[in-house]
C-alpha cells in the first residue's frame, strides 16, 4: 500500500503592477489608525471651531446658526476686555515662564552633580507636577489671603503692610504666576537634567584641562549643549502660558478674573464668553485667535533659533 502526499494548492502570483501598488500602499496602513484618530479628535474639531466662529451661535440653542462672517472677530477686537486678557496673558506668561526656567536650570545643574539622595530629590521634583491644579490653587489662595494668609504674615514680620493679592493688578498676577512656577519648575528641571546627562563628558574634561572653572564650563559647555532642550521648554511654556486657565479660574472662583479683570487670561475670557455669556460663536473666535497666537510665537522662536544656528555654523 502506497501513500501519496496531497498536492499543494498553487496560487496564482500577483501581477507586477498590483505588487508594486501594495508595496507602496502597505506602509500607510500601519500609520492609518493614528491619522484616523487625529482627524476625528484633532483636525475635525479645529476646522469645526473655525466654522462656528463665523456664525452667531448661542449656548441655549446650539443647533441654530446665523452667518456673521468676520463679525465675531471684529466684535472681539473692539472689546476692551479682550485686550486686557491678552495683556494679562502676556504679563503672567513672562512672570511665570522666566523664573520657572531659570530656577529649573539651576536645580538641574545642582542635581547633575553627585549628591546624597539624588534619586529622592529627582522624585520629589515631580510631586508639584503630580498635584492637581484645583488642590494647588486652593492651597495657594489661602496662602495669599489678605487677612490670614501666610505670605502677609511673613511680610508683617519684616515690617511690611499686608498686600491684597486678589484685588491688585500686579499682586494678583504675581500670585497666579507663583502657582504656575511651583507646579512646573520640577518638571522642566528633570527635562534639563536629562539634557545635561546627554552632553559628552569629554567636553567637560577638556574644559577642565584648559583651566576652565565650573562657571565657565556651565556657560561654554552646558548651555550650548542644552540649546535644543531650552528651545523646547520655551516653546512648551509659551503654549502653556497662552492656554492658562485653571489657576486664574480657581484663584478666586470668578470667570472675570477679579473685580477689574486684572488677572483674566485669554483662556478664562473664552470660558466667560462661551459659558458665562452663552456666546459660543465668539468663544470659537477667541479659540482661533489663541491658536494663531501660538503659531506666531512658536514660529518666531523657531526662526530665532535657526538664525542663531546659522550664525554659529558660519563662524
Automatic annotation (TrEMBL):
UniProt domain ABC transmembrane type-1: residue ranges: 86-299
GO terms under cellular component: plasma membrane
Biological process, per Gene Ontology: transmembrane transport
Keyword Transmembrane: yes
Domain of life, per lineage: Bacteria
Source organism (scientific name): Streptomyces filamentosus (Streptomyces roseosporus)
Bilayer topology: Multi-pass membrane protein
Transmembrane segments: 28-51, 90-111, 123-144, 285-305
Compartment(s) where it occurs, according to its Swiss-Prot or TrEMBL record: Cell membrane
Main location: membrane
InterPro entries: ABC_transporter_permease, MetI-like, MetI-like_sf
Name this protein carries in UniProt: ABC transporter permease
Pfam families listed in its UniProt record: BPD_transp_1
PANTHER family assigned to the protein according to its UniProt record, in alphabetical order: ABC TRANSPORTER PERMEASE PROTEIN, INNER MEMBRANE ABC TRANSPORTER PERMEASE PROTEIN YCJO
Swiss-Prot/TrEMBL keywords: Cell membrane, Membrane, Transmembrane, Transmembrane helix, Transport
Lineage: Bacteria, Bacillati, Actinomycetota, Actinomycetes, Kitasatosporales
Family membership: Belongs to the binding-protein-dependent transport system permease family.
Amino acid at each position: 500500500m502506497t501513500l501519496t502526499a496531497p498536492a499543494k494548492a498553487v496560487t496564482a502570483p500577483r501581477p507586477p503592477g498590483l505588487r508594486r501598488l501594495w508595496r507602496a500602499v502597505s506602509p500607510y496602513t500601519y500609520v492609518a489608525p493614528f491619522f484616523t484618530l487625529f482627524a476625528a479628535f484633532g483636525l475635525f474639531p479645529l476646522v469645526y471651531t473655525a466654522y462656528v466662529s463665523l456664525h452667531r451661535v448661542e449656548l441655549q440653542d446650539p443647533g441654530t446658526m446665523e452667518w456673521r462672517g468676520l463679525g465675531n472677530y471684529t466684535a472681539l477686537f473692539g472689546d476692551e476686555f479682550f485686550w486686557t486678557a491678552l495683556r494679562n496673558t502676556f504679563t503672567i506668561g513672562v512672570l511665570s515662564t522666566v523664573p520657572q526656567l531659570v530656577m529649573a536650570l539651576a536645580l538641574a545643574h545642582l542635581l547633575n552633580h553627585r549628591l546624597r539622595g539624588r534619586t529622592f530629590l529627582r522624585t520629589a521634583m515631580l510631586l508639584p507636577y503630580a498635584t492637581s491644579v484645583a488642590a494647588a490653587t486652593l492651597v495657594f489662595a489661602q496662602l495669599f489671603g489678605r487677612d490670614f494668609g501666610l505670605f502677609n504674615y511673613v511680610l508683617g514680620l519684616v515690617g511690611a503692610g499686608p498686600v491684597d493679592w486678589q484685588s491688585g493688578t500686579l499682586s494678583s498676577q504675581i500670585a497666579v504666576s507663583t502657582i504656575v512656577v511651583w507646579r512646573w519648575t520640577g518638571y522642566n528641571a528633570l527635562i534639563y537634567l536629562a539634557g545635561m546627562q546627554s552632553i559628552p563628558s569629554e567636553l567637560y574634561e577638556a574644559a577642565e584641562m584648559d583651566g576652565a572653572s565650573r562657571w565657565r564650563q556651565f556657560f561654554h559647555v552646558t548651555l550650548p549643549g542644552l540649546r535644543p532642550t531650552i528651545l523646547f521648554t520655551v516653546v512648551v511654556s509659551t503654549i502653556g502660558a497662552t492656554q492658562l486657565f485653571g489657576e486664574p479660574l480657581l484663584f478666586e472662583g470668578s470667570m472675570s478674573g477679579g473685580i477689574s479683570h486684572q488677572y483674566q487670561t485669554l483662556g478664562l475670557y473664552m470660558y466667560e464668553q462661551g459659558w458665562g455669556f452663552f456666546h459660543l460663536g465668539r468663544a470659537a473666535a477667541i479659540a482661533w485667535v489663541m491658536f494663531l497666537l501660538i503659531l506666531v510665537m512658536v514660529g518666531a522662536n523657531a526662526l530665532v533659533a535657526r538664525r542663531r544656528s546659522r550664525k554659529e555654523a558660519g563662524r
